[in-house]
Amino acid sequence: MRRTFLSLLTLLGVGFGWSGQAHAQGIQVSPVVIDVPARRGVASFRLRNARPAAVAFEVETYAWTQENGASVLTPTTDIVVAPSVFLIDPEHEQIVRLGVSSAARGGAVERTYRVLVRELPNEARPEGFRLQLEMSMPVFVRAANARGEINVRRIQGDDGGPAVMITNSGSAHLNLSEVPGVPAVENMPRYLLPGAAFVRPLTPGTPSLRLMVAQAGAAAAEERRFEFSDAPVLASSR
Fold first, then answer.
1. In terms of DSSP bridges, do strands 27-30 and 79-82 run parallel, antiparallel, or are they unpaired?
2. Which residues of 84-96 are buried (b: 16+ CB within 10 A; e: fewer)?
3. Which CATH entry fits the domain spanning 3-141: 2.50.20.10, 2.60.40.10, 3.40.50.150, 2.60.40.1610?
4. For residue 74, what pLDDT band results from cuts at 50, 70 and 90?
5. Number of C-beta neighbours around residue 113 at 10 A
6. Is residue 194 within 8 Å of 66, Cβ to Cβ?
7. Which residue of 148, 153, 156, 229 has the lowest C-beta tally within 10 Å?
8. How many CB atoms lie within 10 A of CB 221?
9. What is the CA radius of gyration of the chain?
């Protein structure tokens, strides 16, 4: 028996928007980005089952950081989930509530987490290929007046070739996307968390870099252009 686990957000890409809803394989989730006001410390999301049979889920929470643009998830008790295991009947929905501990609120820097919702195996389903969903949703615990700050500089990569380092030196996450018609940064993360950075190779002779950048909670992204100096680059990413 083979079981295949797919990410709902991977299946759908980014077409649903940063704070809208998404659906796949008869399961709908809303919102797909969870913002938690620091003062209240509570939020929720909704799952709806449009399948002809009941579906069981479990919910886990993780602290979310980044290393060179890749997500690093660490189990956390900062967020309490209720319920954490549940069954949704056909054409019904479940509201899942999140409560953030006081220790994770009130700071000057936004705190970032991930909520993972996994479909549990249903032994009543026929043997053979099974498609089970795994949904990963970002959770941002806001900090008052927090803003992201992007910095881009050309460096020498570990292989000695030109590279670019993109850093968020601010106190809130940034949303990054490509400028239409412009060569994209290789494997650029969708979000750049506060204090995070990533390095990517740069085509020799590239004079500038253009990115679409949006502040946390912004309705639209703005194009940013970063010019590189022609002077030799001596710094490395280490």
1. unpaired
2. eebebeeeeebeb
3. 2.60.40.10
4. very high
5. 23
6. no
7. 229
8. 17
9. 20
